[in-house]
Design goal:
This protein is mostly helical. The chain has a single domain, classed as Up-down Bundle (Cytochrome C Oxidase, Chain A). Helix content is about 70%, strand content about 0%. The protein is globular.
């Protein structure tokens, strides 16, 4: 019945779970921001979402862009982390249908039953991921990666909460902010796995034989605790000064975590530097939010966008371009477009944060930030569409990493 998944022109797209979802991650990054920019520039109508256009925008970025990347990462990384077989094509396709159904249903709230369909699809995607990976995570002898299971389970709760509140006609933004906190914590968890390989490979490439990078659990756990505590405080009491103090604590914990990264000139290698910048943007975002909440300054949005565009954007871009190439049979890209795209994402974060905190025109900053973001992920699509839609040519199958020399 689903023979097209195993033979035919689109079969290579389902050779591994990251392929369709990483493709949709980049595509949704471009399309969602283009629609948001058009809304500001020419008044393009957006779906009538409870809470207004801001909720639509946040939901599109979190449940379109970010969740597609989470699905692609989980479907590929968990089998690798647990040394289990790759996830079959049919479940990947089912999850893909749920992701697409969620996007279409949420975009058409006036259609009867669309809101419920969106809730079922968004929740079903996360529940499906849990069903697929929970047994692997639990049977792993050391159970070292159960944090992914707890994060996915928490995301199910926030997803249901968002849709229930939206169905009731209330503003569900607080659930999206809680989801953002969970995703920030998930980034820290995932980065600890990725960074060990990337930074130590950079050290080896730089000829550093006396230094080893270690992602130390105490620092990581403290940062995750502070991030989650801030998310909970913001959910319970939005705008309260306590949230400001906790945000400052989260920023400090993230800066403390960066002490593990100070390994010398190896950090100038493009992939190590990109991951390093993720934590800097995250720390800066929480620090700015904390200062704003404690001083009644209008900078909370600036801090939030430093974290979401800078940290989340760079983290997802890193996963797309590292895992998305290695598990497709290609070495990480060394061409000039990569640092250009990294600079554009960082620029988008800074430009968006500048709205409302300086003399920069809000219209110009929003347009420029959108252009930077769209160009960065558009470049990724141009260079990776052929890689994701064709069969491997390195002699390896499925999700296998690069063959050892």
């Amino acid at each position: 019945m689903l023979s097209f998944l195993r033979s035919g022109p689109i079969a290579p797209l389902f050779e591994c779970g990251f392929r369709p979802f990483f493709l949709l991650t980049a595509a949704s990054a471009v399309v969602a921001l283009a629609l948001w920019a058009a809304f500001f520039a020419v008044g393009l109508p957006l779906p009538a979402t409870p809470g207004g256009p801001v909720v639509w925008h946040a939901h599109a970025m979190l449940y379109g862009f970010a969740m597609a990347s989470v699905a692609g990462f989980v479907l590929t990384a968990i089998p690798e982390f647990t040394t289990t077989r790759a996830i079959d094509r049919e479940p990947v396709f089912a999850l893909l249908v749920l992701w697409l159904a969620g996007r279409l249903a949420f975009a058409a709230p006036s259609i009867p039953g669309a809101a419920i369909a969106a809730m079922l699809a968004d929740t079903g995607l996360l529940a499906g991921l849990i069903v697929l990976v929970a047994p692997r995570l639990w049977r792993d002898p050391d159970r070292r990666h159960l944090s992914f299971l707890w994060a996915l389970s928490a995301l199910v709760v926030t997803t249901v909460g968002f849709h229930v509140e939206a169905l009731a006609g209330a503003d569900p933004l607080r659930w999206l902010l809680l989801t953002t906190g969970l995703l920030m914590a998930l980034i820290v968890v995932a980065m600890s796995r990725i960074s060990m390989r990337i930074v130590n490979a950079a050290l080896e490439e730089a000829g550093e034989t006396t230094i080893e990078y270690l992602a130390r659990p105490p620092r990581r756990k403290l940062a995750i605790f502070c991030i989650l505590l801030h998310a909970a405080a913001e959910f319970v009491a939005p705008g309260h000064p306590v949230s400001g103090w906790i945000a400052l604590a989260a920023g400090a914990a993230l800066l403390n975590l960066l002490n593990d990264w100070h390994v010398g000139r190896a950090l100038l290698q493009r992939w190590a530097l990109m991951l390093y910048l993720v934590y800097w943007f995250m720390a800066a975002g929480y620090a700015v939010m904390g200062i704003a909440l404690l001083t009644d300054a209008p900078w909370v949005s600036a801090g939030r966008h430093l974290a979401m565009i800078g940290a989340m954007g760079l983290a997802i871009f890193a996963v797309l371009n590292i895992a998305g190439r290695v598990h497709a049979g290609f070495e990480p890209d060394r061409r000039i477009w990569v640092p250009v795209a990294i600079t554009l994402i960082a620029g988008a974060a800074l430009l968006r944060a500048a709205v409302g905190v300086g003399p920069v025109s809000a219209g110009f900053a929003l347009a420029a930030a959108s252009a930077c973001w769209i160009t960065a992920f558009g470049l990724h699509l141009v260079y990776h569409l052929p890689i994701l839609t064709r069969a491997r040519t390195d002699g390896q199958n499925g999700c296998a990493g690069l063959a050892e020399d």
